[in-house]
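Predict the 3D structure for this chain.
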Amino acid sequence: MSAVIKLNHSRFKAGEFSIRDPTGKHLYYRIESNYAVLHSLKLIAYPSKQEVGQLKAVIKPLVYKAEISILDPERNQFVNGLIEQNLQLFGSLFNIDWNGNHLKMETDVGSFTTKFLDEKGELLAQFRLQPSSIFWTKKYDMQIFSTKYPEQIYFLGLAVRDHNGSQNRSG
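Done. Predicted structure below.
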């Protein structure tokens, strides 16, 4: 699957995103933020407008940590997990633990590309900040190479990475 993800600016809330097909015509998902002290998001599927994912940051000194919940369509129940930042001198690394699985989300220093890897180092998905986003509205290109895990994990990961990068630049 390939998608284009566009940041919709909000002055008082965390970033919200539209996730569309590569042509930009078909809306797959929206990431909506809540008014909250800590990062809080809902992932809404379109056209059904069903909530299929949630993210709520928790207080942890020095690094980002959030609880995630992703809807399992077969059981119609949310499955919980965590996204937690590893303190790095260079680049960015997050561990994602979900449903007994361990993934990494990593960005090399100076890179516009963030990769999702499984425990064996297999590339599952990646997103890249479009270079024009430095000057205009932020847009990301995402490619998902594996159906091993729900795509919602990657979309919530992108929102975390964007939020964390924005916090680091403004703080």
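The CA atoms of residues 124 and 146 lie 5 Å apart.
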